[in-house]
Every structure is written in structure tokens, then in C-alpha cells.
Amino acid sequence: MNPRIEPRHFSRPSNSPTWTQVTLVGAGPGDPELLTLKAARALAEAELVLYDNLVSAEVMSLVNPAAEKIFVGKKCGLHALSQEGIIELMIKLVRGGRRVLRLKGGDPYIFGRGGEEAEALAAAGIQFETVPGISAAQAAGAAAGIPLTHRSHAGTLIYATGHLRAAKDTDDADSEALPLDWPMLARPHQTVVIYMGLNSLPLISRQLILHGLPADTPAALVENASLPQQRCIRGSLAELPELARSHALKSPTLLMIGEVTAMHERLSPAMRQANALQQTALNQTAASLMADVLERHCKV
After folding, report:
1. Cα distances (Å, whole numbers) of residue 61 to 33, 65, 72, 136, 291
2. Is the pLDDT confidence value at 130 over 70?
3. Catalytic status, residue 74
4. Domain boundary residue among 83, 116, 134?
């Protein structure tokens, strides 16, 4: 069998037209300076944008002012549209002759349901491309001083979802509500990052301890990663549910578990000092900085 050489999908000549009907774009964790150049150009060229709840106002400010913007986000069970409705809308818009930019927080293919949308577009015969974004886990690690991997502490990195689903009335209701591979998640010498796990923190903490992870394992909760209102709350695995309650944490909050989280206390003081110096020196807004970058590198 001859090997198949796949074409590149992440770049095109800046002066060439695009024939893509849908562009799935990762908006990153919220800080507009963390957008990729390709994402920034896609926003500037957009004609119609379907955007999610976790896309920050700062990122939305970079969208072409002439573009039509439609909110399709989901928050705490309140959905502007169901996932099936979003897919149906995208397909109808494309078949009506519109080019769609589908804007998602973080990375479309990391718990962003971008895979489901890509499958549906492919099945409908619709051309699309995907622009990756910096994930919330990457941003939280960098902004909170928590390296996701470290030769001395973690040689494995695991992302998991903590999104609950309705549990049956059984002896193992925890596993029914959150069917994760608990023995795998409870292994030592690794970092586990759990998305959408704030509401299921008691269950997560209980199950990991039951499956052998020590109750005093270092852990952290990072709220609003990369944004000015970011908070990092550190404690042990057993303490996390009470810490979340006492600090009134709200979504989006990431749960980070592993020895690397203890590095926060050593790294964050130097990071805060550097950030303070940087803020003193900065006299340009994120939008003007991005405009400069686009002018120099992304002329169309």
C-alpha cells in the first residue's frame, strides 16, 4: 500500500481567495493576545460568526465589524441552541450561500464538540477547515505557574471531562454519573486536568481517593484562565470541594491534579513581578497590537 501524502491545511498565500465554506476557529482561553495569527486573520475576514459562551468580549472585538454575529452558546444547562440545532443552522447557512466562521473557546477539538461538527459537515459534503487554539489547560498552566509536565514530577498528561450526566439509582451511582477510567486517573507521577468539573468536584475527589490517589495529593483550581480576573486556588485533593465552595468559584474553572501544581507557590511570585513590570511598560491595547501584527504579517 502506497503512503498517502496529505496536503497542508494550516496556511495559504495571503493574497489567495479561500473556498472554505465553514471555518472552525479556536478562540483560545480568552486573552486576545493568545490567538494564533491565522485565527486573528479569520476573525478580521469573517462574514458571519456563530460564537460560543466562552468566547471573550475582547476576542469578539476583533471580529470584522461588518460581520453578522449569532450567539449559539451553552451555559449551566441554558442553551441558545442544542448541539443538533447548531449543526443544522450551519448547514442551512452554507446551503443558503453564506460563509460561516464557527468560533469556539479554547481549541475546537478539545472538549469543544468540534469533532461532532466536523463530522456533520463532512457528511453533508461541506468544505471546512479547522484553526486550532490554545486550550484552557495550556493557558492555566502558563498563567498560574503550573507546568503541565516536568521530568521530576509528571511524565504523563491527561485531559478529561468532568461533565456530569444523569445517574441511575444504583450502588455505583458515581460511575454512572461520571463514567471515567478512575484507576487510570489515579496513577502517580502524572498530571490530570479536568475540564467542566466544578459541579462534580466532590465526586471526582472521592473517586480518585477511593482508587488509590493519596488524599494529600497537590491540586489546584484555576478560574478564568488567562483573563485579568483569573484566580488559582491551591490545596490537596481532599480539600478541593470545600475550597471551591469557600472561594465561591464559578465556571469556567479547571481542576489540575498532580505534583506539578505545588510549583505554583515557587513560580507565581516571580511571574506576578514580571507582569507588574510589563503592565507599567505597555501603552497599547490588545486590539491595537493585534492590528499591527495583522498589518505586518497577514495582508490580503
Report:
1. 12, 8, 17, 20, 12
2. yes
3. yes
4. 134
Bridge pairing between strands 48-51 and 68-71: parallel
**Residue 4 is which amino acid?**
R
Better-scored residue on pLDDT, 275 or 58: 58
Residue with cell 481517593: 209
Residue matched to cell numbers 484552557 = 136
**Same structural domain for residues 129 and 143?**
no
Please report the pLDDT score of residue 272 as a whole number: 73
Set 52, 104, 107, 174: catalytic member: 52
Give 218-233 pLDDT, tens digit per residue: 999 999 999 999 999 9
For the cut 90, the answer to whether the pLDDT of residue 10 exceeds it is: no
52 is catalytic: yes
Task: Answer yes or no: is 233 within a domain.
Answer: yes
Q: How far is the C-alpha of 102 from the C-alpha of 52, rounded, in Å?
A: 9
Range of the domain at 190: 137-270
pLDDT tens per residue across span 77-100: 556 789 999 999 999 999 999 999
Q: Which residues, 6 or more positions from 286, have their beta carbon under 8 angstroms from its beta carbon?
A: 31, 32, 33, 58
Say how many domains are in the chain: 2
Residue 168 within a domain: yes
Identify whether residues 205 and 155 lie together within a single domain.
Answer: yes
Q: Is the pLDDT of residue 16 over 60?
A: no
| Domain termination residue (choose one: 107, 134, 161) | 134
